């Protein structure tokens, strides 16, 4: 008869430290957000702006282009002697509701910012990886084109293109996307040059992997962290550029409400005391851009492998 010993029947117990699972990236990100606090507040602000951008037509109290001349230049409710509940944030010189135009303007600003960054990022990362991986003539050609573009002031280039192509949201996205690709191309090129000589890339070549597979699966995943950080900052930059071009009358058509266009329309009314026409759209731009910059700063630290142990 075989006798069992306690060591054969007792369950194997691991040390307490080995039972603790490594936290996932999502849990680590949430822990870092709650610890930093300011990025969490920035994320809440961006969530509110994104909500307005997605559901603007459903939550806006009025048509943003509906004119009521009898209610022109109505002050906000908190600043009026006789508050008008139909215009909680006041009305402009044509009697249009400022709150409704702000809500609709969020859609244009966010969509233009994201679309331009995606376009510029796709073009810049693709050209930068090609230049860094193949080198030689392609590298020289792409980088010289980038240098030529950097020689032109962006605002002057944007004005020239928009005057030729005309005012539309699509043309504005193209112009702003073209102005962003150089940054991505330079960063992608430098990172690709550093990655192409690593052991796993050499092993992939020896196993017969083609260039497209090496670029997409071997190099691209390892260079995305700095590019994501740059993209978060560039969204804020594009929103400011869109506001600048709209302020100059070269952005989207006048019938499309934008925060920059509202600032441009407020110029003639500021001297008359209609301060709300400039304060509210300006405040929306400041809060959105500031939140994107704070979130981008946190993202840069979060993706830095040297700081992983402290977060």
Overview in brief:
With 311 residues, the chain is mainly alpha-helical. Helices cover 68% and strands 0% of the residues.
Features:
311 residues, MetI-like fold, 13 helices, 0% strand
Note the total helix count. Answer: 13
The CATH superfamily appears as: MetI-like
Helix content: 55-70%
For the record, the count of structural domains works out to 1
Give the quaternary arrangement of the chains.
single chain
CATH architecture: Orthogonal Bundle
The ordered H/E elements are: HHHHHHHHHHHHH
* Structural class estimated from helices and strands: mainly alpha
Classify the beta-strand content into a percent band: under 5%
Fold-level CATH name: MetI-like fold
Overall geometric form: elongated
Radius of gyration (CA) equals 26 Å
First-last Cα distance? 57 Å
Poorly predicted runs: 1-22
Please provide a written account of the structure.
By secondary structure, the chain is an all-alpha fold. It has one domain (40-61, 71-305): MetI-like fold, CATH 1.10.3720.10. Helix content is 68%, strand content 0%. The protein has 13 helices and no strands.
